Amino acid sequence: MHISRSDWRDESQKLSIALFAAVHAAPQSSGTTPVPILSENSNLQPDGSFQFAFQSGDGVQVQNQGTLKEIEVQKADGSGTEKEQVIVQSGSYSYQAPDGQQITVTYTADENGFHPQGAHLPVANANGQ
After folding, report:
1. Cα(14)–Cα(16) distance, rounded to whole angstroms?
2. What is the domain partition of the chain in residue ranges?
3. CA distances from 78 to 26, 74, 81, 129 (A)
4. Strand runs (DSSP E) across 28-80, as ranges?
């Protein structure tokens, strides 16, 4: 399966929107004052790599970058392997929790899944629990 550049752009935009939505889904104050966007940068290169970042007036910060990576995968019929492109991303997001704690998550996302890290997240032991 090959991902076209336009499909990749669509998927990276969807991920960026999903990250933005996830960060803003965190509990917020009951005030009705709009939160200003202090900065926003987006850079999409012809080779498919990209960078995205924004900071809002309530302290939310998001940054994300990605590239296309070619990997070999098993053919569906089991007759060997074929090359496929995947999106490899890394980044972080942070916000202030209702209790005042600053929450920061750094992550990578690749052919092996989404891998978040943060001081507030539980860590699996050697048995994977």
Report:
1. 5
2. 5-25+37-117
3. 44, 6, 8, 33
4. 37-44, 50-56, 61-74
Distance CA 111, CA 94 (A): 24
Query: What digits encode the pLDDT tens for the residues 77-127?
Result: 989 999 998 889 999 999 999 999 999 999 999 988 999 999 988 887 767
Around 50, how many Cα atoms within 13 Å sit in the side-chain half-sphere?
21
> What Cα–Cα distance (Å) separates residue 107 from each residue in 49, 56, 84, 90, 118?
17, 20, 22, 5, 9
Tokens 């098993």, located at residue: 74
Strand-strand pairing, 61-74 and 37-44:
unpaired
pTM over cut 0.90: no
Alpha carbon 12 to chain centroid, angstroms: 9
Buried b (16+ CB within 10 A) or exposed e, 5-32: eeebeeebeebbeebbeebeeeeeeeee
Q: Look-up: residue for tokens 């991303």?
A: 89
**Calculated CA dihedral for residues 73, 113, 56, 59, nearest 10 degrees:** -150
